[in-house]
Design brief:
The mean pLDDT is 88. Strand 5, helix 7 and strand 6 form a beta-alpha-beta unit. The chain is of the alpha/beta class and 549 residues long. The longest helix is centred in the N-terminal third of the chain and has 28 residues, at 38-65. The protein has helices at residues 38-65, 69-82, 85-98, 102-118, 123-143, 168-173, 192-200, 236-257, 283-289, 302-305, 314-328, 363-369, 371-384, 400-419, 437-441, 443-446, 457-464, 483-499, 513-521, 534-542; strands at 2-5, 7-10, 13-20, 159-163, 179-184, 204-206, 220-224, 229-232, 273-278, 295-299, 332-336, 389-394, 430-434, 452-455, 502-505, 526-530.
C-alpha cells in the first residue's frame, strides 16, 4: 500500500479501480520534413482542425442536451479558441519556418501557449494552460486518424480516471455513470475538469505522478478528497476505514433525504416555496425525487440543440412540453422561451457572430425579430397547456415595449389556433425574467403588464457589477451579494408586491446557503434551484430565523 499526497481539486471520497487514460499524442520524437512537404503538412493540419471543430461542436451539443450547461459553456469557449485565426497561422508558420511535421508543430505551439499561461500570476489564467493542452491534443488526435468520439477508455466497472491531464473532452466521452473520481498529474482547482467534478459531486486530486507510483489500469485506488491523499493498492484495514467514511457520507445523504418530503420552513415559522430548475426531460426524475413544489425554470433550448442544423417543429416541441407538464401533474412549470445567442450558438437560427454576444441579438430580442420561429414555440406551448399548470417566461426583457409586443404575439397565436379549430385553451400566465438592471430599475412599470417576475440572478449580477463571470481576469469581482445587486433584488420584490404579482428567483443564489438569508431578508419567499440542492436548502432554512417581514 502507498499513500501519495496530492492537491484537492474537488472534495469527496471514492474507491474504485484505476482506468488510465493514455493521451500521449503531443509527446514523442521531433519529426523534420523537407521543404516540398510543407504545403502537404499544412493541408493535413487544416483538415485535422476542421475535424476538431466538428468534434467540439458535437460535445457541446451533447453537453447542453444532457443539461450539463457548465460543460457546454466550456466547449463554446473551446470553439472560440480553435476558431481564432492566430492559432492556425502559428501552426502553419511553425511547419514552414522549422520544417517540422504537423505533430511536432502542434507540440511546439502548444508548449509556447501553455507556458505563456502558466507564467501568469492569476491562478485562473494558469489553469487555462490545461485547456490549450486539451485542444491541441484533440487536433493531434484527429490528425492521427481519430474521429467522432475520439479515444474512449472502455470498462464496465466503476472506475477512477487517471491521466497526465484530463479535460472536459475526456470526461464528456466516458460513461459518467461509472466514473467515481479523477486523478491527474497536471491540473488545479480552477481547471475546467475540476469545476465539472465539483458540479457533479465527483472527487478529484491533482499533482499525482501516477507513473512513478506504478498505477496502471486495474490497480485499486482510494481518493480522499478531504485530506488530499491517494491510497494505492490499499490494505484491508485501510479499505475498511474508508468504507466506514463512505458509510458516514451515506448517513449524511440519508439525513438530507429526510428533508425531501418536508415543507421548507424557517425556524421562526416562515414558509418558503422551494422549486427546481430543469433543462432536459431527464431532469424531471430528480425534480420529482426531491419533491420540488414545481419547476421555476425550464430551459427550452435543449430542443434546439439536439440537432443544431434543424429547428424543431411544432409537434416535436408540443410533445416535449406535454411530457414535462404531464409528469409534474398540477405543480407549476415555468417554461422559459428560447434563450438563444450569448453562449448558446445554434447554427439553424442564423445568428451571426457578434463582438459581444451577451449584449447582442439574443433571447427575446431574437424571438421578436424572427416571429416565424417564435410563433412555432408559442403554438406548441399553448397547445400543451391543457396538460398541466403551465406558465410562460420571457428572457432578457429590458423594456415594457418588448413585453407588450410578446403578449400581442401570444394573443395572436390563440386566435390562430382557434382558426385552426383547436382549443379552447386556458389563459397562460406570462411573466418575465428580471436579469438586466434596466428591468429591475423599471420593475414597477413592467409589473403593470407582467403576470409574474422571475429574478435571473446570474445575469443580473453580471450586468450590474460589469463582470463577465467566465473571464478569469475579473472572476473574483463577480459578487452576487454586492450591495447594488441586493438593492435591485429588493426593488424588484417590492414592485411585485405593490402590483400583487408573484416573484421568485431562479439563479444560483437560490441554492447557495451563503445567499439565502439575504434573499429572504429582501422579501423573497419562492426559490428555484438545482434539484439536488433542495434537501440542503430545506435543512439550512430550518435553522434560520428571519422574522416575518
Amino acid at each position: 500500500m502507498t499513500v501519495i499526497q496530492g492537491t484537492i481539486a474537488a472534495e469527496g471520497i471514492a474507491a474504485a479501480k484505476a482506468l488510465v487514460l493514455e493521451s500521449g499524442h503531443l509527446n514523442g520524437n521531433r519529426i523534420a520534413i523537407t521543404a516540398d512537404r510543407v504545403h502537404t503538412e499544412q493541408i493535413a493540419f487544416a483538415a485535422a482542425l476542421q475535424k476538431t471543430v466538428a468534434e467540439i461542436e458535437r460535445l457541446k451539443t451533447k453537453a447542453y442536451t444532457d443539461g450539463a450547461e457548465e460543460q457546454g459553456d466550456i466547449f463554446s469557449a473551446y470553439l472560440e479558441i480553435v476558431g481564432d485565426e492566430s492559432l492556425s497561422e502559428d501552426v502553419c508558420r511553425c511547419i514552414e519556418e522549422k520544417l517540422v511535421s504537423v505533430n511536432t508543430a502542434l507540440m511546439d505551439v502548444c508548449n509556447a501557449y501553455a507556458a505563456d499561461m502558466a507564467a501568469l500570476d492569476d491562478p485562473y489564467m494558469q489553469a487555462r494552460a490545461d485547456d490549450f493542452r486539451q485542444i491541441f491534443r484533440m487536433i493531434a488526435e484527429m490528425h492521427s486518424g481519430g474521429g467522432e468520439g475520439g479515444t474512449q477508455p472502455s470498462t464496465t466497472e466503476n472506475f477512477i480516471l487517471v491521466g497526465k491531464e484530463i479535460g472536459p473532452a475526456d470526461t464528456a466521452r466516458i460513461d459518467r455513470r461509472l466514473l467515481k473520481g479523477i486523478v491527474v498529474e497536471n491540473g488545479s482547482r480552477t481547471s475546467h475538469a475540476a469545476i465539472i467534478c465539483r458540479a457533479s459531486g465527483i472527487p478529484m486530486l491533482s499533482g499525482i505522478q501516477y507513473q512513478d507510483a506504478h498505477i496502471t489500469t486495474g490497480v485499486p485506488l482510494i481518493i480522499d478528497g478531504e485530506l488530499g491523499t491517494l491510497v494505492v493498492a490499499p490494505d484491508e484495514a485501510t479499505a475498511q476505514d474508508y468504507a466506514e467514511k463512505s458509510r458516514e457520507l451515506e448517513q449524511t445523504r440519508v439525513r438530507l433525504n429526510q428533508w425531501r418530503g418536508k415543507q421548507a420552513c424557517t425556524a421562526d415559522g416562515v414558509t418558503i416555496s422551494v422549486m427546481a430548475n430543469a433543462g432536459v426531460l431527464s431532469d424531471i426524475d430528480a425534480v420529482l425525487e426531491n419533491n420540488a413544489e414545481g419547476i421555476g425554470l425550464f430551459r427550452t433550448e435543449f430542443l434546439f440543440m439536439e440537432n443544431p442544423d434543424r429547428l424543431p417543429n411544432e409537434q416535436e416541441q408540443f410533445e416535449a412540453y406535454k411530457t414535462v407538464l404531464t409528469r409534474m401533474g398540477n405543480k407549476p412549470v415555468v417554461f422559459r422561451t428560447l434563450d438563444a445567442g450569448g453562449d448558446k450558438n445554434i447554427s439553424a437560427l442564423g445568428i451571426p457572430k457578434e463582438e459581444n454576444p451577451f449584449l447582442g441579438w439574443r433571447a427575446i430580442r431574437y424571438c421578436l425579430k424572427t416571429p416565424e420561429v417564435f410563433r412555432v414555440q408559442l403554438r406548441a406551448l399553448v397547445r400543451a397547456s391543457v396538460f398541466g399548470n403551465e406558465r410562460i417566461m420571457l428572457p432578457m426583457i429590458s423594456s415594457e415595449q418588448e413585453l407588450l409586443q410578446a403578449r400581442k404575439l401570444l394573443d395572436s397565436v390563440y386566435e390562430e389556433l382557434k382558426a385552426r379549430g383547436e382549443g379552447p385553451f386556458p389563459t397562460i400566465p406570462l411573466g418575465i425574467m428580471i436579469e438586466t438592471p434596466a428591468a429591475a430599475l423599471t420593475a414597477a412599470t413592467l409589473a403593470r403588464s407582467a403576470d409574474f417576475f422571475s429574478i435571473g440572478s446570474n445575469d443580473l449580477t453580471q450586468y450590474t457589477v460589469a463582470v463577465d463571470r467566465g473571464n478569469e481576469y475579473v472572476a473574483d469581482l463577480y459578487d452576487e451579494l454586492h450591495p447594488a445587486v441586493l438593492t435591485l433584488i429588493r426593488q424588484t420584490v417590492a414592485a411585485a408586491a405593490d402590483a400583487g404579482i408573484g416573484v421568485h428567483i431562479c439563479g444560483e443564489m437560490a441554492g447557495d446557503t451563503r445567499c439565502v438569508e439575504a434573499l429572504l431578508q429582501a422579501g423573497l419567499r419562492e426559490l428555484s434551484m438545482s434539484a439536488n440542492r433542495i434537501p440542503h436548502i430545506k435543512e439550512f432554512l430550518s435553522g434560520l430565523r428571519i422574522g416575518n417581514r
